[in-house]
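Holo model, adenosine-5'-triphosphate. Inputs:
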Amino acid sequence: MSSRTALVVTVACLSGGSGKTTAALNLATMLADHGKTLAIDFDPQGNLSQWMGWTDLSESATIAETILPGADRVHISEIIRLPLNEDRQERLWLAPSDYSLSRAMDAIVMEPGRELFLKRALRPILSDYDFLVIDSPPSKGLLTYNSILSADLLVVPTECTQKGVMGALSTLVLLKELEELDFHVPKFLGVLPTREQWVGNNRTKMSRAAVEALTDMMQGIPVFTPVRQSTVVQQTNSMGWSLAESGEELLAQPYREVIEAVLRAR
Ligand SMILES: Nc1ncnc2c1ncn2[C@@H]1O[C@H](COP(=O)(O)OP(=O)(O)OP(=O)(O)O)[C@@H](O)[C@H]1O
Ligand SMILES: [Mg+2]
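Output:
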């Protein structure tokens, strides 16, 4: 019998386009170098699944079926698959998602314990992996509560804008609301500023102000080195590659910092 228990890292932020899925892809791919890793797409947009090569899931069971109540529920082991676009020697796996996750949310909304259905779905496979990395939708709601409450550690990617700062703050407030309700909340590992804009050798005023505001307002929560804005990120995402394996060291460095913090927390 294995004594392994996966460390569960959720990537979430109550703001759209903040770099959540990019972070989930990079963290899952890089953690796979340290142990068997499962990337869990918990966003009905299904971007992580698409980037990992699974573009049509209409005939397949997805993460949606694993959170359904009663007899309709599917065991999570039945939906786990390898990324289609990369051979990573079976160290990185995917639990995919698509739009059907929105319907699943409607189906659980009246059920007791509905905030913990993803946590329940993951329980039987914790001993099979070293790391689980969960991607979340951008909005405040039942799906986000489920992804946050499944985690040991929370990473919050935040765009280097005023909107991004507000998203990070809202996420912190949500964590406190859940804690006040006696839910067991994850450790807030840190904020990861993303899409930091540079002109020549200088950060733009807006990016600098956003990172300073984050450092001031996040109440001692670590703020990782910002990820710079670059068209390379879109290209590597669409191929399902991490920035590290694409040789983009400058862009990969902030994710390495997050990985080090995850490994220290193990
Ligand atoms: N550092 C970056 N530089 C340039 N583009 C980036 C960077 N990080 C992410 N992007 C791009 O920005 C878009 C949004 O990023 P991503 O999908 O990771 O955000 P998200 O928070 O998951 O979005 P959503 O809220 O819609 O789920 C994507 O097209 C992605 O490729
Ligand atoms: Mg996303």
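The mean pLDDT is 96. The two ends are 20 Å apart (CA to CA).
Archived with the compound record.
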